[in-house]
Design a protein that fits this description.
- There is one protein chain.
- The protein has helices spanning 8-16, 20-30, 34-42, 89-106, 122-127, 154-157; strands at 2-3, 47-52, 58-69, 72-81, 109-115, 131-134, 139-145.
- It is α+β, with helices and mostly antiparallel strands.
- The chain has a seven-stranded mixed β-sheet, with helices on both faces.
- The radius of gyration is 15 Å and the shape is globular.
């Protein structure tokens, strides 16, 4: 796998081949104009990685968004994949776990909300050190608190 540039063409190719589970999540978030809203949102992200196979076919895109609460630095981590991710899953998970390891050194808390279509991803997120918190039948929160951080995770449930 290789890193590729974040271009309109690459993002359009990605969204056309996105996994159904991730598409359902994005449809919930964006409601309408999925492709345009997705592409617009990517250009506003703080830190992104975009991966492709050796043929430059997009496989995964992810990153972290900076958030702040009081004196704490929060990182909202995210990852979306295409239907082709499975063929590259070992490299992908290693790459993502290395990114998470890096993010853990730079943020007090890592978190995000996961839509019910993606609940199976909680298995590897738990192995990566994330905890989960039920928000509703449709959403769960996954989070990682750096050692010594005193934070009421219910803060996220009220947002």
């Amino acid at each position: 796998m290789i890193e590729i540039s974040i271009t309109h063409k690459n993002l359009a190719n990605f969204i056309k081949n996105i996994r159904l589970e991730d598409k359902l999540e994005l449809e919930y978030v964006f409601k309408n104009n999925l492709e345009d809203n997705f592409i617009d949102s990517i250009y506003k992200c703080d830190e992104i990685y975009f991966l492709a196979d050796n043929n430059r076919t997009p496989i995964a895109i992810g990153g972290v968004e900076n958030r702040f609460c009081d004196d704490l630095k929060l990182g909202q981590v995210w990852l979306l994949t295409t239907k082709d991710y499975y063929k590259n899953r070992f490299y992908l998970y290693k790459y993502v776990l290395d990114k998470i390891k890096d993010f853990k050194t730079r943020y007090d808390i890592l978190f995000n909300f996961i839509y019910k279509s993606n609940y199976p991803a909680l298995t590897w997120l738990n192995k990566a050190g994330f905890m989960e918190y039920d928000l509703s039948a449709d959403f769960k929160l996954f989070y990682f608190l750096n050692g010594g951080i005193n934070f009421d995770i219910r803060y996220f449930a009220s947002k």
